[in-house]
Specification:
The complex is a heterodimer of chains A (217) and B (753).
Chain A: E1 6-13, H1 20-29, E2 42-51, E3 54-63, H2 70-74, E4 82-88, H3 92-96, H4 98-108, E5 114-120, H5 131-140, E6 144-147, H6 156-172
Parallel strand pairs in A: 1-3, 1-4, 4-5, 5-6
Antiparallel strand pairs in A: 2-3
Chain B: H1 4-7, H2 13-20, H3 32-44, H4 49-65, H5 69-85, H6 91-107, H7 111-125, H8 139-149, H9 156-179, H10 189-204, H11 207-210, H12 231-245, H13 248-264, H14 272-284, H15 290-303, H16 309-327, H17 333-354, H18 360-378, H19 382-395, H20 411-430, H21 436-439, H22 442-452, H23 457-471, H24 499-520, H25 527-543, H26 547-565, H27 571-591, H28 596-609, H29 638-646, H30 659-668, H31 678-689, H32 696-702, H33 705-713, H34 716-732, H35 739-752
Helix pairs in contact in B: 2-3, 3-5, 4-5, 4-6, 5-7, 6-7, 7-9, 8-9, 8-10, 9-12, 10-12, 10-13, 12-14, 13-15, 14-16, 15-16, 15-17, 16-18, 17-18, 17-19, 17-20, 18-20, 19-20, 20-23, 22-23, 22-24, 23-25, 24-25, 24-26, 24-30, 25-27, 26-27, 27-28
Classes of the chains: A alpha/beta (217), B mainly alpha (753).
Magnesium ion binds at residues 20-21, 39, 62 of chain A.
Protein name (chain B): EFR3-like protein cmp44E
Family (chain B): Belongs to the EFR3 family.
Organism (chain B): Penaeus vannamei (Whiteleg shrimp)
C-alpha cells in the first residue's frame, strides 16, 4: 500500500519563461532540461519527500504562464495548499507583473493557502532585481521568499522541502481542516489534508516569515 | 517474490490465487486459467473481493516503483475483469482499491501507464453501482484528465492518444458522478472550471469550427465508432453530454468557464468558434433552460462594458445568432427582460460613447445589438412582438411628452432616441399586421404619433418607416419609394374593404391624419421625409378601403396645398409639398373618377407652365421657382372638388370639417352596435360594401326596404350569416386585386351608369 502521511497540492504560477517547469523538473527528476518548451495548459508531477521520518507526498501542478491559458490554470488555484509564485531575477517585467498575480491569487485561491515568492535564475549574470527588492515585496504581502537557480540546482530542493515542512506543521496545528468530505482519492488511513472550498477572511499565519534570501554563494 | 515460495502454503487463499495469475515472464500476459479461478473465487466469496483488490493494489504499487510495467498492466487487466464480472454489494470497497490504482498509474510520468489507467477508468465509468458512494472524490481525476487534454508531446500520435484519453476520462467522470448524484458534485465550479476549458481547447483549433463548415445541429452523429473520432469530435460529444445533463442551478457553472475561456483565448473578435460553441450549447441544453444561457451571455456583455467595442460586438453577434434558438422558449416576463437588457446595452453604449468622438466600432456594436433585438423579436409569437414594440416605444425618450425640447436636448438623448426607434423599426419589420386595432393599441399609437411630430427630421422619418412596416400588409412599400404621376405603373395590391379596418379608421384615423398634416409643415423636412409621407398616405389608401380615408386624405392635401400657397412653408419644401399633393391627387382621381377631369386639368396646366410642381420631386430647386401665391388654375380647387363629390358615395361634408372638430366628433360619438339598431346595421353594411368611387346610388339600390325588413325580422344568427354572405360577395372582387384591375372595374361600373 502507498504509505504517506500527508498529501499536499502545490501549484506553480508566474509569467511565461520564468522557469517554473525547470524548477519542477529539477526537483522531481534532478535535471535541467535543455530547450524546455513553454508549458501548454497544466503539467503534473508527483514527488514524495521525507520530513521528520514521515513521508509527505507532493502533487505538483505546473501551470502555463501564457495569458491565453489563464482560464484553465486559474482553476487549479482553488485546491492548492501552497502556491509558488515565480519571477525571473533577470527580468524586471516578470517582477512587475507580481501584483497582477497576487490579485489572481486573492480571487481564486483559498485564503489559507501557503504563498511563496521565488526569484529564479540566480545563476544569471544580468540580474535586474536585487535580492532585497524581492524580499521586501514578499514581506509586504505576507509571503515566504527564496531565490533559486533551476540550472545550478540552487535552493530548489530547499524550496520544496521547506514547503512540505511548513505545510506539515500547519496541518498539525490545525490550520487546514481535516475534512474528509472535501478529500481527495487517497489511501485509507492516510490523512489527506483538504482546504475549505470557500473563502474566509485572511488569516495571518504566514506573516512575513522568511526562509532564505541569499543568492548563490 | 523472493520468500513467497516457502511460505505460500500458509498464505491466505486469495493471495495465492492472485499470485498465480502473474506469469513468470510478464510478456506472456495474464495466466488465463488462473484468472478464471480467481474470478470464480471472487464471485463465490464476494466478501473477499475487497481483500483481493487490496492485495492487487499492493502488488501494483510495488511493480510501479520497480518499473515492472508488464506486471502493472497485468494487474490492471485482472482488475478490469473482476470489476466487470462482479456485481456484488462489496464492489464498493473493491472500487476504492481500483480507483487508487488508477490514480497511481495516472501519477506516473509514463504515458503508456496513463493511457492504460484511463482505459480502465472508462470501463468503470460505465458501471452503475448499486449503492452510491458518499465519500468518493474525483478531484484528482478531474485535474489530471484535464491536464492530459493539454498534452503537448512532440510525438503526434502520443499527443493525440493522451488528449483523447483525457477527454474520455472527463466524460467518464461526468457520467459516473451524474448517475449517482449522491456522491461527488461534478457541477461544482472547481470541476467545471477545469473540464469546460479542456474540452474547448481541443475543439477550438479545428477548422471545422473556425470556418463554420460543419453544420451544427441539434442531433449528434453517433454512427461513427468512438474509437475513430478525432479529439475535437470527442470533446464536442462530451460538451454536448455535459450541457444536456445540466439542470437549472448547474448551467451557470458550465457556461461561466466557457465564457471566461473565450475571453482569455481572445475568441470574441473573430467569433466563428464562439458562435459554433454556443450553437452546440443551445441545441444540447434542455430546452427550458436555453433562456438562462442567453441571460448569462447578456450578463457577460455587462461585465465587458469597458472592453473594446470589437469584443462587445463579438459577444452581441453571438447573441444575435443564438437568440432565435431560445426565443421559442421565452414566455412572459423573460421576453421583456431580454429586450430590456438589450435596450440597456444600447443605452449604455450611447451614454458611454457620446463624450468622445464615437468610433465606428462603437456604432457597429450598436447595430449588432439592434440586429440581435430584431432576431429575437423575429422568433417571438406575434402577440409578444406587440408587447415588445410597446415596451420599446415606452423606453424611447420623448415618447411620453408632447414637447421634445427641440434642439436643446442633450446629445445622448437624441442619439438614444434614434437608436431605440431603429430598434422599434427592426421589431416592427418582423411583425405581420393582421388587424390594425391589434397592432395599434391606443396608447401605442398615441406615443408613436407624438414622436412622429418631433422637431428632429430623422426621428420623423423613422416613425414614418415604422408606420410603413406596420400598415403595409400587401408588400406595397417598395413600390412607393418615389412619388410619381404614373399611377398605373405602380402595381399596387389593394386590400379588401373590411369592417375592422373601417372601425379602426373611425377610432384612430384622425390621430394619424393630424400627425401627417403636421409632418408636412416642418421647414427642416428633407426629400426623404416628403417621400415617406407620400408612402404613408398611399399605404393608407391601399390598405384601409373606406370612403372616409379618401376624404380625410383629400382634406389633408388641401391643407398642405394651403400651407405652401400662403408661404407658411417655403423654399424647396414648398415646391416639394405642391408636388406631393399632385402625386396623391392623381391616385385619388383614379379611384374617384368624378375628380378625374379636374385633376387632369390641373396636372396639364402645371406640366405646361410649372413642371416643378409635379413629380419627380427633387432635393433642391433653382431658387425663384414659384410655389406660393400660385394662380388658381395651377391649384386643386377645394369647392370644385366639394361639388364633384356631392354626386358620389363619399361624404363630402367631411371635407369641410376641420381636424380639431373631427377629433371632437370622434371622441364623443360612439357607435354602439346592437342588433336592433338599424342605424348601426346600415353603417356596417355600408362600410362593408362601399368602395371608393362607387356612386352612392348603387348602395341605395342595395339597401331596400325589403332588405331592411329582413334585417329586422331575421334572427340575429340568420342575419349575421346573411350579412356575412353579402359582404363576401361584394368584397370578393376586391380581394387582393391589383390596383389597375380595381380601377378598371370601378371605371367600367361608373361608365355604365
Ligand atoms: N539561466 C537560467 N535559465 C533558466 C533557469 N530556469 C529556467 N531557465 C530557462 O528559462 C526558460 C524558460 O523556462 P521554463 O521552465 O520553460 O519556464 P516556465 O516558467 O515553465 O514557462 P511557461 O511554461 O511558458 O510558463 C528556459 O529556456 C530555461 O532554460 C535558471 O535557473 N537559470
Ligand atoms: Mg512551463
Amino acid at each position: 500500500m502507498e504509505d504517506y502521511k500527508f498529501l499536499f497540492k502545490v501549484v506553480l504560477i508566474g509569467n511565461a519563461g520564468v522557469g517554473k517547469t525547470c524548477l519542477v523538473r529539477r526537483f522531481t527528476q534532478g535535471l535541467f532540461p535543455p530547450g524546455q518548451g513553454a508549458t501548454i495548459g497544466v503539467d503534473f508531477m508527483i514527488k514524495t519527500v521525507e520530513i521528520d521520518g514521515e513521508k509527505i507526498k507532493l502533487q505538483i501542478w505546473d501551470t502555463a504562464g501564457q495569458e491565453r491559458f489563464r482560464s484553465i490554470t486559474q482553476s487549479y488555484y482553488r485546491s492548492a495548499h501552497a502556491l509558488i509564485l515565480v519571477y525571473d531575477i533577470s527580468s524586471q517585467p516578470t517582477f512587475d507583473c507580481l501584483p497582477d498575480w497576487l490579485r489572481e491569487i486573492e480571487q481564486y485561491a483559498s485564503c489559507k493557502v501557503l504563498r511563496v515568492l521565488v526569484g529564479n535564475k540566480t545563476d544569471r549574470e544580468d540580474r535586474e532585481l536585487p535580492t532585497h527588492v524581492g524580499e521586501e515585496f514578499a514581506h509586504r504581502h505576507n509571503m515566504y521568499f527564496i531565490e533559486t537557480s533551476a540550472k545550478e540546482a540552487d535552493n530548489v530542493e530547499k524550496l520544496f522541502i521547506e514547503i512540505a515542512k511548513e505545510l506539515t506543521q500547519l496541518v498539525r496545528s490545525g490550520h487546514f481542516d481535516k475534512d474528509s468530505k472535501v478529500g481527495d482519492l487517497s489511501p485509507q488511513d492516510v490523512s489527506n489534508v483538504t482546504l475549505p472550498p470557500t473563502r474566509e477572511p485572511r488569516s495571518e499565519f504566514a506573516c512575513c516569515s522568511r526562509w532564505i534570501s541569499s543568492s548563490t554563494t | 517474490m523472493s520468500c513467497c515460495g516457502c511460505c505460500s502454503a500458509f498464505r491466505p487463499r486469495y493471495k495465492r490465487l492472485v499470485d498465480n495469475i502473474f506469469p513468470a515472464n510478464p510478456e506472456d500476459g495474464l495466466v488465463k486459467s488462473n484468472m478464471d479461478k480467481l474470478m470464480w473465487y471472487a464471485m463465490t466469496s464476494p466478501d473477499k473481493l475487497d481483500r483481493i483488490g487490496d492485495y492487487l493494489a499492493h502488488r501494483l504499487y510495488r511493480d510501479i516503483n520497480r518499473r515492472k510495467t508488464g506486471y502493472v498492466i497485468i494487474s490492471m487487466d485482472a482488475l478490469d475483469q473482476l470489476l466487470v464480472s462482479c456485481h456484488a454489494n462489496n464492489l464498493n470497497l473493491f472500487v476504492e482499491s481500483f480507483l487508487q490504482m488508477v490514480q497511481k498509474l495516472l501519477e506516473s510520468t509514463e504515458p503508456k501507464l496513463q493511457l492504460r489507467a484511463t482505459q480502465s477508468f472508462e470501463k468503470f465509468a460505465n458501471i452503475r453501482e448499486d449503492t452510491p458512494s458518499y465519500h468518493r472524490r474525483y478531484d484528482f481525476l478531474v485535474s489530471k484528465f484535464s491536464s492530459m487534454c493539454y498534452a503537448s508531446e512532440d510525438e503526434e500520435v502520443m499527443r493525440k492518444q493522451l488528449r483523447t484519453a483525457g477527454i474520455k476520462g472527463l466524460q467518464g467522470v461526468v457520467r459516473k458522478t451524474d448517475w449517482d448524484n449522491l456522491g461527488e458534485n461534478i457541477w461544482l465550479p472547481t470541476h467545471m472550471e477545469k473540464i469546460v476549458p479542456s474540452l474547448l481547447y481541443n475543439m477550438q483549433g479545428n477548422k471545422a469550427y473556425v470556418h463554420g463548415t460543419t453544420q451544427i445541429s441539434d442531433t449528434q452523429d453517433n454512427h461513427q465508432n468512438e474509437g475513430e473520432k478525432e479529439p475535437h469530435e470527442l470533446a464536442e460529444m462530451c460538451l454536448r453530454e455535459l450541457v444536456s445533463r445540466a439542470t437549472y442551478g448547474k448551467i451557470h457553472n458550465v457556461i461561466k468557464p466557457l465564457l471566461i475561456h473565450l475571453d482569455y483565448e481572445g475568441l470574441w473578435v473573430n467569433n466563428s468558434f464562439a458562435v459554433q460553441v454556443f450553437k452546440i450549447v443551445m441545441y444540447s441544453i434542455q430546452a427550458q433552460y436555453s433562456i438562462t444561457v442567453i441571460e448569462l451571455l447578456m450578463a457577460h456583455l455587462n461585465e465587458k462594458s469597458s472592453e473594446p467595442a470589437q469584443i462587445r460586438t463579438g459577444i452581441a453577434d453571438v447573441l444575435s445568432k443564438v437568440i432565435p434558438i431560445a426565443a421559442g422558449e421565452c414566455i412572459g416576463p423573460s421576453v421583456i427582460e431580454i429586450i430590456n437588457s438589450l435596450l440597456e446595452h444600447i443605452r449604455s453604449s450611447v451614454v458611454g460613447g457620446v463624450s468622445g468622438k464615437e468610433s465606428s466600432a462603437e456604432k457597429m456594436y450598436q447595430e449588432t445589438l439592434i440586429h440581435a433585438l430584431g432576431e429575437y423579436a423575429n422568433h417571438l409569437p406575434d402577440y409578444q412582438k406587440i408587447d415588445s414594440m410597446v415596451f420599446i416605444l415606452n423606453k424611447v425618450p420623448g415618447s411620453d411628452r408632447v414637447d421634445d425640447g427641440g434642439s436643446q436636448r442633450p446629445e445622448a438623448e437624441v442619439k438614444l432616441q434614434h437608436l431605440l426607434l431603429k430598434s422599434l423599426l427592426k421589431v416592427g419589420t418582423k411583425y405581420t399586421t393582421v388587424q390594425y386595432s391589434t397592432t395599434f393599441a391606443q396608447s401605442f399609437l398615441v406615443r408613436l404619433m407624438r414622436l412622429s411630430v418631433s422637431s428632429d427630421a430623422e426621428v420623423r422619418l423613422t416613425v414614418q418607416q415604422i408606420l410603413h412596416t406596420l400598415i403595409d400588409r400587401h408588400q406595397n412599400i417598395e413600390k412607393l419609394a418615389k412619388p410619381t404621376l404614373e399611377v398605373s405603373r405602380l402595381g399596387l395590391t389593394m386590400s379588401k374593404p373590411v369592417r375592422q379596418d373601417v372601425n379602426f379608421w373611425k377610432k384612430s384615423g384622425n390621430e394619424i391624419m393630424l400627425s401627417l398634416q403636421e409632418n408636412c409643415e416642418f421647414s427642416n423636412n428633407r426629400l426623404v421625409n416628403i417621400e415617406a409621407i407620400y408612402a404613408t398616405l398611399m399605404l393608407l389608401m391601399a390598405e384601409i378601403r373606406s370612403d372616409d380615408v379618401m376624404v380625410d386624405i383629400l382634406r389633408v392635401l388641401f391643407h398642405v396645398q394651403g400651407v405652401a400657397q400662403n408661404g407658411t412653408v417655403s423654399g424647396p419644401q414648398g415646391v416639394q409639398l405642391q408636388a406631393l399633393v399632385a402625386s396623391v391627387m392623381v391616385v385619388i382621381s383614379h379611384l374617384v373618377p368624378t375628380l378625374k377631369d379636374h385633376v387632369a386639368a390641373v396636372i396639364k396646366k402645371r406640366s405646361d407652365e410649372a413642371p416643378h410642381l409635379l413629380p419627380e420631386i427633387m432635393a433642391s430647386y433653382e431658387s425663384g421657382l414659384p410655389c406660393r401665391d400660385l394662380p388658381e388654375d395651377l391649384l386643386f380647387d377645394h369647392s370644385k372638388v366639394l361639388d364633384l363629390l356631392a354626386n358620389t358615395n363619399l361624404d363630402e361634408k367631411r371635407l369641410n370639417t376641420s381636424m380639431a372638430s373631427m377629433m371632437r366628433r370622434h371622441s364623443t360619438t360612439q357607435h354602439t352596435s346592437s342588433a336592433t339598431d338599424i342605424n348601426s346595421i346600415s353603417v356596417e353594411v355600408d362600410s362593408a360594401c362601399s368602395s371608393p368611387g362607387l356612386p352612392r346610388r348603387t348602395l341605395e339600390e342595395e339597401i331596400t326596404f325589403e332588405s331592411l325588413k329582413k334585417v329586422l325580422t331575421e334572427s340575429p344568427e340568420q342575419r349575421r350569416k346573411a350579412e356575412e354572405e353579402r359582404r363576401k360577395q361584394i368584397t370578393e372582387a376586391f380581394m387582393t386585386e391589383s390596383f389597375e384591375a380595381l380601377v378598371a372595374k370601378i371605371q367600367a361600373k361608373f361608365s355604365v351608369q
